[in-house]
Amino acid sequence: MLGSFLTDAIVVVAVLGVMIFVHELGHFLAAKWFGVRVLVFSLGFGKRLFGFRRGDTDYRVSALPLGGYVKMAGDDPSEVRPGEPGEFLEKARWQRFVIVVMGPAMNVLLAILLLAGLYKFHFPKPAYLEQPAQLGDIEQDSPAARAGFLPGDLIVRLGDLRDPKWEDVELRVLTTVGEPIPVEVVRSGERINATVTPRPEGPSRVGYAGWYPSVRGVITKVDPGLPSAQAGLKAGDQIVGMEGRRAFCWFRLSSVLQAAAGKPINLMVLRDGKEFQVELKPAYSEVMGEKRWRIGVMFRSDIVIQRLPWGEALASSFRDNLRNIFATFDVLGKILTRRMSTRSLAGPIGIAQLSGEAYRAGFPELLMLVAFISLQLGIFNLLPIPILDGGVILVLLIEGIRRRDLSLQVKERFVQVGIVFLLLLAVFVMFNDIVKTFRPN
Questions:
Q1: What are the C-alpha distances in Å from 189 to residues 160, 192, 211?
Q2: Domains in the chain and their CATH numbers?
Q3: What is the rounded average pLDDT of the residues 116-121?
Q4: How many helices (H) and strands (E) does the chain have?
C-alpha cells in the first residue's frame, strides 16, 4: 500500500508539473511578445529550491509542487510603480487580456494535442464504446430493471441523442442523477418508449442506470483444474445467460461470482448453435496478488487500435474535448443547483489516485488522463473567481466597459474574497477526497 501511495504521489506531481509548466508558459510567452518584463517563472510556490537566471527572469523550482506562477514587473496595483513601458499594468487592456487568457488557452491546446497524438499513433479503445448501444445485461433491482429494459434492447434515442454509441450513453448517465431520461429502444423489431432515472452510485455519487453493453462472452482459455474445466467448458463456448436470465456481457460475470461468495452459479452456454446449462461452484484463489472467486475462464476482449491521419486525429480530438467541455459545465451547473453531489468533485488526493491508476493501466491511459485534467485546469482557471485568470479577465472586462480602472480598494477586496474562497474550496475538496477514500459508499 505504501508503494502504491508513493507511486501515486510521484505520478501526480509529474502530471501537474507538466500542466502547470504549460499554463505558465502561455502567460510567459504572451508577456514576452508584448514586451512585459518577466521577473520570475516558478514551478511550485514557496521557498526557491533551485533554478537559474537569464536576463530579467529567475527560472526556479519552489518547495510546494502543486502550483506555479509567473511574476511580471508592475503586475501589483498596490505597489508603487515607475510607470515603465515593460510593466504589465502599463499595457493596453486587450494586451493584458491576451497575456492572462493564454494560460488557460495553453491547457486547452495541450489537451487537444495530446488526444490528437494518441489518435494519430496508438489509441486502444474497447470496441463496444464505438458500437450501437445494445444492452447486454441488466442489474437486478436497478433503475434500468425497474424501467423494464431487457438484454438485447437497442437504444435508438437517449434524451436528445439519436442512435447513440455506448460511449455517449455512459457519459449521459454518469452526469445525470435523479432526473428521468426519455429512452426509445428497439426490441424484436418493435419500438418501445420508457424512461430511466439514474441513481447516485459509488464514492463520487455519479449517475448509475444498471445496464451494461452487449459484449459477447466467448471463452478463449479454460484453466485446468478449475470449475469450468471440470464441467467440460472449452474455448469457443459462449456464455449467454447467468442465474436463469439472458446476459450478453462477459465482464459482468466477475461481479456475479464475487456477489455469490462461493455459492454455486448457473450459466447458460452456447456451443455449435446449441444451448445447455452448467452449474459451477466457484473456487477461491489468488490472481495477480488478489484473492477472488473464480471459475477459471478467460474471454476475448475486442480492442480497437485507432491510427488516424493527422486531419482526422485533430478533428476527433477537438470534437471530444468540446464534448468534455459541455459535460463539465453541465456537471458544474447540476452541482450548483444541487442536482448532483459535490462528491463528484476531485481534489489533490483524488487526482493522485486517478493518476496512479492510469499510470499502472498503461501510457495511453495516462496521456488520456493528462489531457482531461489539463482541460479541466483550463476551464477552472477561466471561472470568474478572484485571483484566478478568470477573475482578472472579469476585472478587465468591467474596466473596459467603464473606460476607467476600478479603485485600488475594490481590487484589494476582490482579491481577499478570492483568497478566502480558494482556501475554503481547497479544504472542502481535500475533505471530500478523504471521505471518498474511507467511506466509498
A1: 22, 10, 20
A2: 2-121+356-438 (no CATH), 129-213 (2.30.42.10), 217-300 (2.30.42.10)
A3: 93
A4: 11, 20
Position 426: which residue type?
Answer: A
Question: Among the options 24, 87, 167, 201, which is catalytic?
Answer: 24
Q: Which three cell numbers stand for residue 426?
A: 481547497
Task: Provide DSSP, 273-327.
Answer: TEEEEEEE--EEEEETTEEEEE--EEE---EEEE---HHHHHHHHHHHHHHHHHH
* Amino acid (1-letter code) at residue 95: Q
Q: Confidence band (pLDDT; 50, 70, 90) for 288?
A: low
Task: Supply the pTM of this predicted model.
Answer: 0.86
Residue 247 is predicted with a pLDDT of 86
Which contacts of 194-198 are long-range, i.e. CB under 8 A and separated by 24 or more positions? 194/147, 194/148, 194/149, 195/147, 196/143, 196/144, 196/147, 196/149, 197/143, 197/147, 198/143, 198/173
Could you tell me the pLDDT band of residue 54, with boundaries at 50, 70 and 90?
very high
**Identity of residue 341:** S
DSSP of 365-386? HHHHHHHHHHHHHHHHHHSS-T
Residue 279 annotated among the catalytic residues of the structure: no
Length of the chain counted residue by residue: 441
pLDDT at 218: 92
pLDDT exceeds cutoff 90 at 202: no
Please give the angle made by the CA atoms of 378, 379 and 384, to the nearest 5 degrees: 115
Residues β-bridged to residue 154: 134, 186
Return the pLDDT at 401: 92
pLDDT the model gives residue 6: 79
